[in-house]
Structure formats: C-alpha cells, structure tokens
Design goal:
The chain has 154 residues and is an alpha+beta fold. It has 2 helices and 10 strands; from the N terminus they run H-E-E-E-E-E-E-E-E-E-H-E.
Length: 154
C-alpha cells in the first residue's frame, strides 16, 4: 500500500472516530471527513474526483458504499446503499456535502440528497440509489479540492 493511500485511510479513520464521539452528543446529525482524490489513480484535473464512505449509522438506518463523484463539467453524482432496521413507515436517509480546499476554505454545498423511502424486513432490504447534482464547474480546476464532509440523518 502506498504511503499516500495509507495516510489518507489513516486520516479518514481518525476523523471517523472523532466524529463518532460528536455523533453521540448530537445523534441526529454527524459528519464524516474524507479526502477527495481523483478516480482511477490519476492526478489529472480532467478526471473525475471521488470520495467514499464505509458504514455510517443514524438512528435505525445504515448507509454503506457511499460514493460522491465530481466531474470537470460541473456535474456530479452521489450513490449509496441504505437500509432501515426497525421502521415500516418509509425512513429516508438525508445526506448533504460540503467541499473544502487544502487550506480549509469552503467551496460549495450539495444537498440534501435523499434516499427512497425505506421499510424494514428480515433481513432488511438494501436500497441502492443514485442522485445527480451540479456545481460551478469553475471550482473544479480553480483550486485543489482536498476534502468533503458528509452530514447525514435518518
């Protein structure tokens, strides 16, 4: 594993641990900081940039395989698998994202992006969903996007 990949995973892991503590104080809202990196291992500014999340929990809901993708043309998508463990009344996963430069300057906000209504089962059904969005394409190459924060609730 390369040093950059290791440090990226380590930093994300530490951020997740710290934010889990914050989630205990405010369980309806929590964020996860993830480094944003070009997809396909390329450093080219012309290649899509992606950030991913592992398993996140909010109430009786869970998100896995969360991936946000930014394209140079100002289009983007967020996709995830979500489920609910104890609700028959159509729980909805709400996700919002903030993007920052390496210096910590806020660039833009996306969301909320909502899952379909979910119901539980035995086992709970997994809902795969994709939501498109747009952002100012000039921000894609103007500065180095360093991280994104996902804020979520269910």
């Amino acid at each position: 594993m390369g040093v950059t990949k290791f440090l990226g995973r380590t930093s994300a892991g530490l951020a997740v641990a710290l934010l889990a503590i914050m989630a205990a104080v405010s369980p309806a809202l929590a964020g996860t900081v993830t480094p944003l990196a070009p997809s396909h291992g390329s450093k080219s500014a012309l290649v899509a940039k992606q950030a991913t999340w592992g398993t996140l929990r909010s109430g009786d809901c869970q998100q896995t395989n969360g991936t946000i993708t930014l394209n140079p043309d100002g289009s983007g998508t967020f996709s995830a698998d979500t489920l609910t463990f104890q609700t028959h009344t159509h729980d909805v996963w709400h996700a919002s994202f903030d993007f920052y430069t390496t210096g910590g300057t806020h660039l833009f906000h996306v969301g909320p992006l909502d899952s379909p209504g979910m119901s539980d089962g035995n086992p709970p059904p997994v809902y795969h969903w994709v939501r498109p969005f747009s952002f100012d394409a000039d921000l894609y190459g103007a500065v180095n996007i360093f991280k994104t924060t996902q804020t979520y609730s269910c």
